[in-house]
């Protein structure tokens, strides 16, 4: 399984990285939770990005109590 599975996983992640690059996620420079999470989930989604999956993540950090 490792002989076949590892190259498939690598190609899957490369395709996801290309999709994230085409959406300019690497050049926007946003370091907040939402943009970082969206970039990572786009990479993990891989080829699914080309069949209509457009993952977006929204997250907010908890605010300190007053």
Write the layout of secondary structure elements.
Layout lengths: L1 H21 L10 H13 L21
Helix pairs in contact: 1-2
Shape: elongated
Structural class: mainly alpha
Unreliable stretches (pLDDT < 50, length at least 5) are: none
> What is the H/E string?
HH
Query: What is the average of the pLDDT values?
Result: 88
Description of the molecule:
With 66 residues, this protein is mainly alpha-helical. The protein has a domain at 24-53. It is built from 2 helices and no strands. The chain has helices at residues 2-22, 33-45. Helix 1 packs across helix 2. The longest helix has 21 residues, at 2-22. The radius of gyration is 15 Å and the shape is elongated. The termini are far apart.
Q: Which short descriptors sum up this protein?
A:
mainly alpha; 66 residues; 2 helices; 52% helix
